[in-house]
Amino acid sequence: MSYNFNSVIDRHGTNCIKTDLAVIRGKPADVLSLWVADMDFPTSPAILEALHNKVDHGIFGYSCLDDDFFSALKNWMQTEHDFSPERRELVTTPGVVFGISCAIKAFTQEGDSVIIQTPVYYPFKNMIELNNRKLVTSSLYEKEGKYYINFEDFEKKIIENNVKLFILCSPHNPVSRVWTREELQKLSDICLRNNVIVFSDEIHNDFVYGPNKHIVFSNLSPEAAENSIVSMSVSKTFNLAGLQFSTNFIKNPVLRNKFRIEKDKTGYDEPSLMGLTAALAAYKNGKPWLLDLHKHLKENIDFVRNFLAEKLPSVRLIEPEGTFLLWLDFSKLGLSDSEIDDIIVNKAKVWLDRGTMFGPEGEYYQRINVATPRPVLEEALNRIEGAFKEIKHV
Ligand SMILES: Cc1ncc(COP(=O)(O)O)c(C=O)c1O
Asked: Which parts of the sequence belong to the Aminotransferase class I/classII large domain (predicted)?
């Protein structure tokens, strides 16, 4: 590998929420943080160089998109995802969650129902509830270590609640599914026949393993494209979340206009200069770094799988098809969800995301972020093993 993903960089005191919020959020000061979905590596050198150049230029005034940016973005989308958006379809936001909030306001009224598939990334629920919309959930179900959609339940909930908007997580965080074309097509068909607009959060689209392939929702069919907002970002792919820049693709001009109005109403206007600069460099020159990162992540996933098999066989790994977030099942330990969480946080001193944050279906689960150097991952797993062994629960 040309890039090194195994040197440990201390993130304490760098305004990093993963480390610097630990004590504020009631965790031990020396906790190891493998929760929020950013990475413990510096971004690609090509991106760093572009950012350094911008800093050297020294002028940080209002910024705008140009042809160079759009052609780099389009080239990336075509090469990586067989996706060819037109420039007019693009609306930038300072993040994907910001886009979700705009979509909720643009396509629903207060009191309207919005559906999500739990367990799922928790800000989906928060955005729906904070905007005074009705939360409707359709649970994914797990069978032999893999999660599936209950299509009947999904449609029934839509009809019963007169749902107006569906927030899809594709690939899915936290159960690490990469939805197949058939699954997405069924979801699209249900939404089309019930007049439900789809917001497809595809932020994890550049992390897909094995034979799985990410399908861009609007690539399913012209009808799906007309009925959806597809949201993507370099923020997960290149570890740029702090630069606050994401892209939404909206083919349907009516939906696009409504979305834009809600974005404009927030007062947010031009994209962040550093976010834009980083995204341009990522699309143009980031690929070699990303390929090496994929190798590192796959090795980390193998490491977790082997570690559990050897040392913590009662903890089950849900085999990931995508994302750098692993969904671990602790239910076989015979402990309550609170006991499991308490042991991990206070005895092992490891901060993961507790499964119930993603919905009640996450009881007995924890989500671990493996986008970290191997020594950190190893230390975290050793601590967890030690803590459960100490109380003789493995
Ligand atoms: C599915 C999903 N959507 C959105 C985000 C956050 O996106 P942003 O920081 O661009 O709002 C995350 C981060 O973990 C995520 O997992």
From this structure: 30-384
User: What are the Cα distances from residue 250, in Å, to 197, 222, 365?
Assistant: 11, 12, 35
CATH (residue range 61-285): 3.40.640.10
Provide the 3-class DSSP secondary structure of residue 146. strand
Q: Which of 170, 173, 203, 358 has most ligand 1 atoms within 8 Å of its beta carbon, as the pocket-test mutant?
A: 203
Domain spans in the chain, listed from the N-terminal domain onward: 17-44+288-390, 61-285
Q: Is 284 left (phi over 0), alpha (psi -120 to 50) or beta?
A: alpha
pLDDT tens figures, 63-116: 999 999 999 999 999 999 999 999 999 999 999 999 999 999 999 999 999 999
Query: Domain 17-44+288-390: which topology?
Result: Aspartate Aminotransferase, domain 1 (3.90.1150)
Locus of tokens 């994209």: 271
pLDDT digits (tens, 9 = 90+) for 279-327: 999 999 999 999 999 999 999 999 999 999 999 999 999 999 999 999 9
Which residues contact ligand 1 via a Cβ below 6 A?
37, 95-97, 121, 169, 173, 201, 203, 233, 235, 241, 246
